[in-house]
Specification:
homodimer, 2 domains, about 300 residues, alpha/beta
Chain lengths: ~300, ~300
């Protein structure tokens, strides 16, 4: 492998696009593919080449990065559409590394990795947190599962994309850590909504309230960052309800396989279901407060007159 | 009122004792009372005088601080035992200030304050967080409800006891903020237990796991401080299950009066009920993990051989 690997990049959405851009800026040769071709234009203008299919991308790459939405999307990118042989696996030479940065099921990840291994292809699961801001700034947290030697080899690439990169265990471990991360975010958000609902209905000044409770043992990232948004009625994403629901479904399935009951996570999922019932799929996760407003028949913000 | 008020101090338990000691060190004249007299000995040796009853304490004080366990205890200290006229109200001259630093019901607090007001006695609710460490170091967070003028007058005393003192609103508001603080702590703890249960059962290295998830949007004070204890099997208090259950019962009652449904808080309460079933009332709140161990039929720590 040469000093600068040729990188294939599949999935140029809100996260993938700025990540691919950072790789171009770092001087990597980039071949890109996305299901919707219009999302490629910015990257092609910035110097990326376009692949005709995942297979075509893989043929021209030493390392293929995938960042798509869900488990079936990764399946299709790696192993092709039903009946069509257009996946990464068909084009990749032995020795290629696949880095899947999507958030998908740990068990499926292990299956995909084993299938690729049979063709001499190594796979890392490397899901990220840090949002589109972290993607743009190259400051993502990256949780990596896979063999230590392969992780080592890919570190220069991962360091372009993230600032906190941790090898957390074998294949699938990256995904498991990411799911636990989402469990924490979702249940912490239940805490924030319940506390703010009581504070609001008790007539407290919410800014003073948040100042006090963020100062001690009650604090969380969610309270600090989403608490003020909820108090101000700002439900713009951050991180969308739709994607959190996808992640919680995967987490609950993974926990089912491990036979770990997760009543708090299930509650968070159901409270976000209430937001879906209000067509709030594309709102930020802090829109969970809408369910509490319905349940408690109140509003955090008086409606504008 | 003279430059240094004479202070009465009622309730010299794990929190009250070190707080009273800090007032003595700051040069205040202190008259102390506690139901169990043996808990007074250290303070008497350090220069405090002993009051024979709450009434007797109030007679010798310009400001009376109370810090006892629950709403009925405050009721009794202020207004006397059934049939006996031995409460603070009987001994306090008009112009006395009562600072109640217990965690009790906001609605009862407002009732107590109104009753005292009729006798010309001012009352602040000033519950604290920060634990026995904060009490010893004088670094408690103090959430104060009451009239601004009275808060102002008591600030020099409160500053001896705490480092973050916030006037959060009228009578009862301090208690409401404290209850919301406890809601946040309890529900954040559910998040920590669920994430660690999955991480453990998935075979992750828990130290690496905690290192990663404390670094981003999943973080909370509970994750940082109780996560490592749970991973290490350390269930010593910090803050006892018994006291958290008292606080959650008050929070759920206050929320009932406000008609705010709190499904996450109720879940936390029931998960701690599981710890009570194991006689874990005096363990730290992180013992909530014991309920998950029972539910999921696993152990965070292998039992010693």
């Amino acid at each position: 492998m040469s000093a600068k690997e040729r990188i294939g990049f599949i999935g140029t959405g809100i996260m993938g696009e700025p990540m691919a851009r950072n790789l171009l800026k770092a001087g990597y040769d980039l071949c890109v593919f996305n299901r919707s071709r219009e999302k490629l234009q910015g990257l092609l203008a910035a110097g990326a080449r376009e692949g005709r299919s995942p297979t075509d991308v893989a043929r021209q790459s030493d390392v293929v990065i995938t960042i798509v939405t869900d488990t079936p999307d990764v399946d299709q990118v790696l192993f092709g559409t039903q009946g069509d042989d257009d996946g990464v696996a068909s084009g990749a030479a032995a020795g290629t590394v696949v880095i899947d940065m999507s958030t998908i099921a740990p068990e499926a990840t292990r299956r995909f990795a084993a299938r690729l291994r049979q063709r001499g292809i190594d796979m890392l699961d490397a899901p990220v947190s840090g949002g589109d801001v972290g993607a743009r700034q190259g400051t993502l947290t990256i949780m990596v599962g896979g063999e230590a030697e392969v992780v080592q080899r890919c570190l220069p690439i991962l360091r372009v994309l993230g600032s906190r990169i941790t090898h957390v265990g074998p294949s699938g471990a990256g995904q498991t850590v990411k799911l636990c991360n989402q469990i924490l975010c979702a249940v912490n958000l239940v805490a924030v909504c319940e506390a703010l609902a009581v504070a609001k209905q008790a007539g407290l000044d919410l800014a003073t309230f948040l100042h006090v409770v963020t100062g001690g043992a009650a604090n969380s990232w969610s309270l600090e960052h989403l608490g003020p948004k909820i108090a101000a009625g700002d439900l713009q994403p951050g991180f969308m309800v739709r994607l959190m629901q996808k992640d919680l479904a995967i987490a609950l399935q993974a926990a089912k396989e491990l036979r770990v009951p997760l009543p708090g996570t299930a509650l968070a999922q159901q409270l976000l279901r209430g937001v879906e019932a209000l067509e709030g799929q594309k709102l930020g996760t802090q829109a969970m407060i809408l369910t509490f407003e319905k349940l408690g028949n109140f509003q955090m913000q008086e409606p504008p007159r």
